[in-house]
Amino acid sequence: PLLASAHESSCIRLWSIQGNLMKELLPFSGCPSGPLTVLCTDIFTKILLTGSKEGYIFRWNMASFLEDSQNKKNEIKEELCWRAHAAEVVDLLIEEEKNVVVTASIDGSVRLWHARTGYYFGYFGQARKFELTDTSRLILPSDVNDFSAIIKEESKHMEKKKVIYPLMLDRDK
Both ends of the chain: CA-CA distance in Å? Predict the structure, then answer.
């Protein structure tokens, strides 16, 4: 068993049931994560979803890490991120049978997304029925203009480096 905690620093911490810190995760995608406000997992705890104050959803694959958490090669991989809302995400859940993610925001909207791709299906209260089988239509909610970003496996989290750019006058330019 694992315990997961989401933090204002965008950090996710995984704890053993005895209270020992096992892993710290930071999103490394191009999406600005900001403070994390909510997290959930699938039934088998192989997928971890987090939501942020800026309205982003991050999908993490934890399967190899859970098989052998002592093996340093078994990493938790960030697979996907997308902008789900223009405001803070306050709740989310993954419905595995239909392969959808349900998100809720402080703006009062509840939206449906494809769990593996982040494609938008619609919002609760819309006039048309949800079409859960067609993921080829690239539509977005009216307040979001960023499509989902698939994170490549070779991407690595970059450490912040302090870079000094001194101002120098170049008279030739």
Answer: 62
